[in-house]
Amino acid sequence: MRILDRSVYVGPSLYAHFPVIRLELDLQALEAWPTARLGSAFIDGLVEALPGLAEHGCSYREPGGFVRRMREDEGTWLGHVLEHVAIELQNVAGENVTFGKTRSVSDDRPGVYSVVYEYAQREEGIAAGELGIKLLCSLLPEDIRPAGSVPADFEWESARDGFIRYAQRRALGPSTASLVRAAEERNIPWLRLNNQSLIQFGHGKYQQRIQATVTGRTSHIAVELASDKEETNKILASLGLPVPRQELVTDSSGAIRAAKKLGGSVVTKPYNGNHGRGITIDISSDEDVRAGFEAAREHSRSVIVETFVGGDDHRLLVINGELIAATKRTPGHVVGDGLRSIAELVELVNQDPRRGVGHEKVLTRLELDSQAELMMERVGYTAASIPKPGEIVYLRSTANLSTGGTATDVTDIIHPDNRDMAVRAVLAIGLDVGGVDFISPNIAESYKNIGGGICEINAAPGFRMHVAPSEGTPRDAAGPVIDMLFAPGAPSRVPIAAITGTNGKTTTARMLAHITKMGGYTPGLTTTDGVYIDGQRTVEGDMTGPVSARMVLSDPHVDMAVLETARGGLLRAGMGVSEVNVGAVLNIQSDHLGLKGIDTLEQLAEIKRVVVEVATDCAVLNADDPHVLKMSAYTDAKVICYVTMNPSHALVREHIRAGGRACALEAGINGHMITLYDKGSHIPLLWTHLIPATMEGRALHNVQNAMVAAAMAFSLGIKLDAIRHGLRTFDTTFFQAPGRMNVYNEHPFKVVMDYGHNAHAVGVMSDLAQRLDVPGRRIVVLAGPGDRRDEDLHAIAEAVAGRFDHYICRRDDSLRGRDGDEVPRIIAKKLVALGVAETAISIIPDEQQAVDAALRMGQAGDLVLVFADALARSWKQIIHFQPEGVVAAVAQRAELPPLEPALDEAAFAAMEGVVRDERGLRFEREESD
Prior knowledge:
Subunit structure: Homodimer.
Distance between the termini: 78 Å
Number of domains: 5
Oligomer: single chain
Number of helices: 33
CATH superfamily of the largest domain: Mur-like, catalytic domain
CATH architecture of the largest domain: 3-Layer(aba) Sandwich
Strand content: 15-25%
Number of strands: 38
Largest sheet: 11 strands, mixed
Function: Catalyzes the ATP-dependent polymerization of arginine and aspartate to multi-L-arginyl-poly-L-aspartic acid (cyanophycin; a water-insoluble reserve polymer).
Pfam families: Cyanophycin_syn, GSH-S_ATP, Mur_ligase_C, Mur_ligase_M
Domain ATP-grasp: 233-486
Family: In the C-terminal section; belongs to the MurCDEF family.
Shape: elongated
């Protein structure tokens, strides 16, 4: 049994709309061993190792269903068992995950399964799958156990506890997790910004951050004051608040002198400690004070000695100037029964199902460590001692839950004076969220009458004791924090638009981002060539997956997100957001088929459909593509907007008559008009010939892209004037849309460069080449990615055959598994088979050489169509190219000697400035004319 492949989906994917892990698992010989054949020994051993499996319902949808499934008939196969084990292991570690799905990959791959299960934390989820395999293999009979599948030193209980600790080190802490849950209840999105507790709530410019329970609004000065126990004590005392007297010392002799000066019992604690570490209470002898000093010195250079205040330890939580919760904390202890030893009593206490490792559960397990031994030694006990019935033996000097203490909610009984005292103390330090450690004999009585003292102010108080007390009413400690950061009705989300499809994604995304900018927004855009914030590229590269979406939503300037969403990202890691306001699918065409298990257009459509499945406000669908049209049955968006270039489309006509939203292309006396329909309104938007990107309406693919962009903008609430202005000012220059129908007219011939790399895209550009007025020849440079099937390369040849006067076949720089000239030869051979004369075909494998040959071939009136892969390099090559006649003429004007047609690089660079000056002068004259 081994994992062949693993994919971790961070957002909506083909398998679920939430984070899941998919394992491609090969059972190998174990395919012949379903659970029924493995027998009761295996099943009973598995349930004993993970008792929670007995509650899994599986297909029976009731507790015990999974165990029943394993025992009945043939039972079930180990891939399905691993799914449940991975889920239960995460449950044991404190995560609430439930979803799983296991299926055979295909009939021609027996024993190979797709195992999908939900996860809460990436590393924890991966580790759960790996540990699950070891557990299953350890329970197998030795004669069928795969060799090397279980380490020789594997011991289940130790491995389980190790996994829990591993998971907890990576999981959100109890306080942070409670804040995340509170945000989710208010539909506020969140992002984890590091591996600890730094969380961003909200998107873009609306974001707020927390680190544990410290918020982005928490004053740095206040945190510093709270950390300085001496200064805190002085400030609170100056306001007349109850605080113990204290002295700051740096050595043990100073601690002893301070204790004598203060008189009575004292407390020693670190100057800037936390979580109760290093604190020793109720000590008076020189020996105990010295030991207490050394314990505190382990956590801080300086130590505070203060008067001991008798009573119960309370934590009073104040948020935004209001006391939210009060909890009495009791140190970890055992209660004697006259029969059991302290060690046995600790074991008995730890059997409480509420206790677990670390923060796994409501309570933490008690430990008989050095501090427990010190506490027992003070009362003359050891772990083997048997306390009297009812005798309380404390194993900790402080009441922190993380060391085994218990918490009792006392919010309803706290005296108003004590409530006001806590609020005054936190405000005096300047904290928006603060915890007051208050010692009082009775929290229900005023400190003014019975005494009491503030021991400490916490700048990052834990919420665990309040949201899940051992006894009493749980309190919502996190909700008030979120309400403080996001007032009721305040925005937390930026509008998100996602665009997918086979062709046109990048251009449409750029159009939409440009429109939103014209509408006054600051857009964050992800595309195949980078991430753009307000029109400026901040990251270069193919950025169409979850990582780039996260970049945009984390940027504090962004108030509109436009996400190009590609097939690769969806297959590899899912979407980067759980939902989008507007999702659009442009088309489903043959591209990337045969890769990653996607062999048909139907399978490709199912992947790209995810974008509209998670759309909440509007799904924009190309009604002219049958695969896209069918997606209307899979979206829960409030509105479906159909886009069609066919004004007689029957379904769209009925949709419009029913008051639905649509964008249609209508013929008029002045050309074609992009028209919007919504709730019975008919809204003429813009003539296509007024959109520069459409080349006066001839580039029909960009007409369609503009229609989708307009429909999305309208669905995002962008004003009509901004949509019109955006479309009229968006062109296909290399600056605005690199590799998307870039036109260069400065040579005697016209050059068009495009990134088209599949048959549909190549065919669209070939159609455009036929619609353009070309008095001369049509020349094309084409190729196909090396990882495409031969039939895909044949389809590219079919898309251009018979439409050009000369064909130059090349390859990409990245061969992707092909031989050096294999791709161009396949295309050339197919062109010949389609009737193209061999004399009209050139095979020039290198892209730079192929582009140079096409440019040198160009003459006045010709059209050179270049399908490029290295876009920036090819565009520079096009605009820097110097036709021989132009070079000679410029050289003569500059009184330079004639140059040979083949210029070396230095001479070319020298000439470039002269040529640019000549052109600049001509442009200046034209503008002045």
